[in-house]
Prior knowledge:
With about 300 residues, the protein is an alpha/beta fold. Helix content is about 30%, strand content about 20%. The protein contains 9 helices and 11 strands. A hairpin with a 2-residue loop joins strand 4 (about 55-60) and strand 5.
Amino acid sequence: MNILQYNDLDITKARVAFDRVVAALQAGDFRAADVKKLKGTPYYRAKLSDADRLLFRFGSYGGKTYLLLLETILSHAYEKSRFLNGAKVVESKLEPVHAPGEVNEQESVALPYVNPKHNRFHVLDKVLSFDDTQAEAFGLRTPLILIGAAGSGKTVLTLEKLKALHGEVLYVTLSAYLAENARNLYYSFGYENERQNVEFLSLREYVETLRVPPGKPITFRAFVGWFARHAHGSGLKDPHMVFEEFNGVLTGMTVDEACLDLDEYLALGVRQSIFPQEQRGRVYAVFQRYREWLGGNG
């Protein structure tokens, strides 16, 4: 069996038994691991000791099946499990599973990606396997600046890095919607961390804790109206993509200047921009019109 281990899996109180049971699972020897199915859930447990259990489930990617090790259940305390959401589990009613072939494939979660070089995964609202670049960034010490285009993994990397911080933690993002989305991702599957208190704020909410700024932020709805009036003839059709490019790439990838200049923008790599190289000149021309409009409207 292909084994993947949750990055936050704590095995400190069952290390010796853990290695033995994982070896049995990897060999497909479910009898030796005393595997049983938690009825009504996609989860399984292996026996670490008379009182302790190892919770796992199955995943699939690229035609391969993976066994996802999630957490240790100490002293039969299933109700404390992050993933079982307080479910009451009666050991005597669990269903024995003697071999991998007895597993219902329909209960296997489809994994979006698995990095063959790493056997660890992360969990937000879904199982995450970092690619080499993301894994390298995750391993770097803070303070750290992450720069990347929309969809490059900045948010999930930042949220996973947040889990290692102690005390009062502040997460600031562009909009209230993004702040709420980040909060929901962070606390998915009942995630708790007693060592920290995280507050998620939009940039405006954060600034307003210092002073109330003049003017008002440009909403996407307002941008759509501007785009319809000023972007005709540019060949750009999707205002959402353009809005994200303006906010996340052109003005979000530099800390020294208000925005990238044209040469810097054209020099970005394929994964650093939503738009292909041949469209960026037109995007930047519309961006200049947008900046002029912003300047004239406060």
